[in-house]
């Protein structure tokens, strides 16, 4: 007789592929189909809840098919479905019918970022006035707050995103290229904002290893101090930076 | 100390969409039950609202992802998160399922059936022990709704649960709807099953609606928690609640979730049913 672990492996094989679930000791076919459907349908629904705008763009039927394929190929690694689908945008990029519609995965990444920041740990935001009062701010090591995500879109989807947010009919995306966005939750409210390339680079450099003075040297060859200062102002204004010297909680316990 | 539950308390599930109304004015429910995994984020508005609700209502924390019925030990990270949530909320009840959902680092989002063998019993008892030790409190284990008969079973489910209670000191969450569904789907004698359960260990009742899949052959009752409790289950409940008058009752409703008022109505019916004259057993 199988050990429990061996039997479970055969049961899961039957969940993944009905053709393999023919052994009588796994259970009756119609009953097995209930479990198979529960697993698949609950994950499709979890993805639909996480990515409503992506679903709008793809249409209900195509979204369900793509989400079902994703669920079969990449089951969750853990029971917190709020974190499920972190690779869904990359998965959409592999689908040939979407080859000419890559902006869909841009929208998907923005939705994922919004969901991630909504569940991230609390941490106080560094206020510009507090930084200005510091006697030597250039020596501080600043870090993004946990409830912050940088997303690089490959199309200008700002107008499209706004229409989706407003419940209006989608329109085609703008031009291709690197279009950085920052998703930030502050005081319970999530905001997603297109930012400049300078702001993106400063955010990337504030990784906990560089002091502010070094991080601000974004483009020394161009000597563009004004742009670097503006980028810092954007990050502070959005509440994207943590308070130096005050530990932030881990994103996941 | 957690909010104590009154004898015969009746509660409903906690859904995000009802949180504001629950906080705006006290609702006539004795407690709220939440699915642990939905509140295991690190922070944010959902967590903030949960803490506000925990200050206003007694809570029950109901886990759906610990995979106690699997061959593997409980996932350490998930267990730590459950311990953290229970410490945060100090709920009146903590429960999980006789089911499995994790294998080889993948999670399968359903409550899968456990073969009822001596090996499984030893492994489930080990897993329940681990969780109870980590929580420092008794866990209630819910009987499953089943869609397949497993040929490798060597124990009856009621005997399995009785022995699990004896070995671990856990309690029993008696889901009456699940018992009804499994009896139908497996051709089990429902009254004999209920009579064989360890009644002294029952720490909570669950009630829920279900649907009938007539396309299956034979038709299967599906535990979708998508409607009101059916009359047969109400009749069973009236009988069981009189046998266990102090045991709290939770009305589940997880799909096609109704308005808060409609859900509270269902809770009111539970109060009414348990005060009716003793009902005759289903099928008598």
UniProtKB/TrEMBL annotation, chain B:
Source organism superkingdom: Bacteria
Coiled-coil annotated residue ranges, if any: none
Name of protein: DUF692 domain-containing protein
Organism (species): Halomonas nitroreducens
